[in-house]
Amino acid sequence: MKHVIIGNSIACAGCIEGIRRISKEDEIIVISDEPYHIYSRPLISYWLSGKIPTEKIYYRPLDYYEKNKIKTILGKKAIKVDFEVQRVILEDGQEIEYDKLLIATGGKPFIPPIKGYPKESVFTFIKFDDVKRIDKELKPNINTVVVGAGLSGLKAAEALIKRGCKVKVVELANKILGSILDEFSAKKVKDYLEEKGIEFYLENSVVEILGKNKVERIILQKGEELKVDILIIAIGVIPNVDIFKDTPLKLRRGILVNERMETNINNVYAAGDVVESLDLITGNQRVIPILPNAYTQGKIAGINMAGGEAMYDGSFPINSIGFFDIHIMTGGINNPQENTEILEKWDEDTKIYKKIYIDDNKITGFIFINSFDRTGIIVDLMRKKVNISEIKHKILSDNFGLLDFPREFRREKIFGGV
Question: The pTM is what?
Fold first, then answer.
């Protein structure tokens, strides 16, 4: 059996390890337009800030491909898949046949139409090559602007501050981290980041990039004109499905898959940030671009590709992220309905914030800042849709734990129902 994987991130690693669980001898070929060993995209900001060296950015040991008998074709882009004859066509004309194919092309940066784009010293912030190019131009006290106050945009801003740059962040929404925080916590985090030196321009956007070849200034929607040496566009990521448009592969925003991670085309699977999958909280199919999800999907695809049996039962967004000394963990919904019950607790002295959303006596979302205690239990309650009506009065207390649960839940949690 010959397996081909397009993409070389965490979903790829999951697929390799899923295949090898079933077969030690099946042929595996990995194709990627990036020339690097499997690396962690969430760590690129830490590399840029100088917190970690290059060898720490890799997901797996450098002998990973060799030990798993993987043939790699790195630094070459797949430009087409001929599903009828089961071949992947590369940019140099090479054609790679497959028996089973995994599409794990991940996401690509979203760049809105901006007058004057592109120019030199204007970057995105998603790949290792992005931060390598930024690194070559960084100098202390230069003027940098990040467009986007989401997760990647603020990680970029943090790295630039740590490199001694002046940092401004432009965000279209009226709050930072709008996809994971409420108004209260977003304000607290923004205040903290301003103390670290980041200047925010909320409810604003870049309408024009000025400069002959290289960015020199930008004009904002509200009329401000900012001097810029480096501009980073980090607004968001969308599924990288470009080469599959106008093909028989079924797409909406991402690639559609079933519980086995199979697409609508025989012998073709997909996993990671490029697919739409079941959101356990909302019941909808959607792109859930989180790292553990990508690995799990890749592994399930790999097991099924190699002839095993594995099913993906869905997930929901979970984010764990830190900026300087503030730590945030969120999960599930962040847009409560009219009847959603809300539990909330803020401690001014410790700067600990906890908030839980409850619908029909089941937890549907949470925000925890500067305290990760018992978030594992919260996630488990959400995943299993446990009725918490008898314990919700205790759930934000400092001594909340397993002993507060009904005996049946404790037995299942501790002994797996035995």
Answer: 0.93
At residue 317, what is the residue type? P
**Own/partner pairs, 413-417, CB within 8 angstroms, 24+ separation:** 413/380
Please give the backbone phi and psi of residue 255, each rounded to the nearest 5 degrees, phi first.
-80, 135
pLDDT of residue 255: 98
> What spatial distance separates the first Cα and last Cα of the chain, rounded to whole Å?
39
Asked whether 241 and 277 are in contact (CB, 8 A), the reply is: no
Give Cα 80 distance to the centre of its chain. 25
Query: Token pair for residue 151?
Result: 């997760």
> Which residue's entry shows tokens 């996993």?
271
pLDDT score at 418: 43
Beta strand pairing call for 255-256 and 275-278: parallel
Contact 234, 152 (CB under 8 A): yes
How far CA 25 is from CA of 2, 21, 70, 385, in Å, comes to 10, 11, 10, 40
Rounded distance between C-alpha atoms, residue 349 and residue 90, angstroms = 57
Give the count of beta carbons closer than 10 Å to the beta carbon of residue 130. Answer: 19
Question: Contact, 125 vs 153, CB < 8 A?
Answer: yes
Rg of the chain taking only CA atoms, in angstroms: 23
Model confidence at 320, pLDDT cuts 50, 70, 90, reads very high
Which of 112, 114, 324 shows the shortest CA–CA distance to 228? 114
The DSSP element (H or E) to which 74 belongs, if any, is: strand 70-74
- Give the C-alpha separation, 356 to 330, whole Å: 10
**In degrees rounded to 5, what are phi and psi of residue 263?**
-85, -175
Amino acid at position 54, single letter:
T
pLDDT mean over 307-315: 97
Percentage above 70 pLDDT, the chain? 97
Contact yes or no for 332/382 (Cβ under 8 A): yes
Which residue in the block uniquely carries the two structure tokens 């695809």?
301
What one-character-per-residue DSSP string does 196-231 give? TTEEEEES--EEEEESSSB--EEEETTS-EEE-SEE
CA of 111: how far to CAs of 214, 215, 274, 405, in Å?
A: 18, 16, 17, 47
313 class by beta-carbon count within 10 Å (0-12 exposed, 13-18 middle, 19+ buried)? exposed
CA 292 to chain centre: 9
Q: How far apart (Å, rounded) are the C-alpha atoms in residues 365 and 277?
A: 18
The pair of three-digit structure tokens given for residue 393, joined into one six-digit string? 């009065």
Dig out the tokens for 238 from the structure: 């969308």
Is residue 230 within 8 A of residue 137, CB to CB? The reply is yes
The answer to whether residues 253 and 276 touch, using CB atoms and an 8 Å cutoff, is yes
